[in-house]
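Q: Sequence in, structure out?
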Amino acid sequence: MTATDAVLGAPVERQEGREKVTGTARYAAEFDAPGRAQAWPVPATVARGRVTGVDTAPALALPGVLAVLTHENAPRLGDPDDPTLAVLQGPHVPHRGWFVGVVVGETLEAARAGAAAVRITYEAEPHDVSLTASHPGAYVPESANGGFPAVTEHGDPDAAFASSARRVDVEYSVPPLHNHPMEPHTSTAQWDGDRLSVHCSSQGTTAVQKELARLFGLPEDRITVRAEHVGGGFGSKGTPRPEVVLAVLAARETGRRVTVALPRRYLPAVVGHRAPTLHRLRLGADAGGRLTSLVHEVTTHTSRVKEFVEQAAVPARIMYGTPALRTLHRVAALDVPTPSWMRAPGECPGMYALESAMDELAAELGVDPVELRIRNEPETEPDSGKPFSSRHLVECLREGARRFGWEDRDPRPRSRSAGPLLVGSGVASATYPVLVSPCVASARALPDGGFLVRVNATDIGTGARTVLAQVAADALGAPLERVRMEVADSGIGFAPMAGGSSGTASWGSAVHEACARLAGRLAEHSGPLPDEGVTAEADTSGEADAESPYARHAFGAHFAEVTVDTVSGEVRVTRLLGVFAAGRILNARTARSQFIGGMTMGLGMALTEDSTVDPVFGDFVERDLASYHVPAHADVADLEAHWVDEEDDHLNPMGSKGIGEIGIVGSAAAVGNAVHHATGIRFRELPLTPDRVLTALLAHEHPPGMLGV
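A: Exactly. Output:
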């Protein structure tokens, strides 16, 4: 085997790793230039209403303040594709935190002081920010996110449930969750005549370019958007956010290069969040443990600015075989910030509820939870009837059980303890769809023997540059060190965002095709290369987005061991194991990083991450990392990720599936199921914080009427 034969799958170090650890990698706020100004937004302080007065004089009187823009003097924008970008276009305030102004200063300190000095008066209106399952304004939308039907049904699930030998009818609640990437949302904009250049912390420069062209009435080829390095996004940077519009407006007003870097506490109100989801699951089964009915109903919220419906019932349509199935989404439009994409939208909260209910059904049946899932493997995708391109969930469950030592588990709740600690273990399945979009790429052979590969991919910390270089080297039959990548520049051509675990499949398909074409041309070429080299291009439109006759999904299994402190109520995850079937793994090092990163986010969802909407003031209470708790190293004791070899010829030239999101799917359910096994108490509301757990433990030890006895 040659070096090029082994390049795909090898644990190659990140190409940009040295730049990041030495601080030379430049992010969107770090593109300085003489005369660069800073801008700071002014958020609304009412939950709903309209601006009735603006006094900018105190701000303009401060030293270093250059300009103040509000709806009274900001340029009119074109109609945005996304209404959340229509900033400073009118007096209406749809929710607290909506931007009603922006102050431009010589320095960050001047801009911030100026923003604090702007005086805004409002006429407040009655508001509603509280979601309930019986909310009178809840309705069934035309579709959920991704174009999924809001409702699906086959068979007679109600009759089947009523006649089932074993039944569970349970409700689960997932609170609002926030993305909180390491790098907050930031943009630097500069005008040069009628040409605009932007450095943006975004998951996709093509989307930003198109939206700015629409808003500012420019041809797309006069706008260049770059996102060379991005410090995470988790979906919140998947589409343009208001800070890039403010930066462009401020740059036009002042004639300066302007940077807008949002403070973290502003993010929950303006960059999206995972909407809260209220779930009702009804599972019916025969005495042998085979599902006879499955009903998953979800109620969630959206804003009055833009409809966004978390597709949390969708995974129930593909996971398990049942002759009767209904899934339903309901949504209530409230006076809240607009929810948006967050890692594994739909699948993450939906699988938490479904896999928790499956655990309850296993207990009702007296069947091992792993065995119950295996017994309900479908022959084809239940929703579409299509054959799976590959589905190795059973192998993941069995391999995970072997590695975890599941056979030694006593199934009885509260069967293990260590002093004041109760010990339990749990399991949950995982799934995520295979997504792919059209993309363009080019590859050039240079006279010095090297190769330049260009694709407008965005590396948000996943190692995309490195994996794409491996794809290119494999297709070219060249050593990896001879391949140089150029990415994240809208001038390269259109490309989909880094989202939906579709980046590598989408960009990689175009890179593979361009490099394969170049390899063919080089094979026919004789003599030295011309000074400009030899180039080949690819456009996967019509191929990447073609309808597949197969249902294409990645699958996995999570196993968790926890301890629950009966004195403090604290839950600790002592072991977390994930085994995944995700096609061909293209880089073992970066793949493991993605898997364990997702699993850790699931751990946070289960134990620490919680957000509440203040019913009086209408904003999220937990707006920074001091109050919104993400896992720290001490919370992750023993974390392992493995995968089964999976060959699938129905995906893309690399045979890969997305891996960025499947790690979070099911992780929280495995932890929750382990806590039930440890305590004998079923918690149906996340997160499992010490106060919530301790209250339940005390109630369990001292039922009503027994206190003081």
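DSSP finds 15 helices and 24 strands in the chain.
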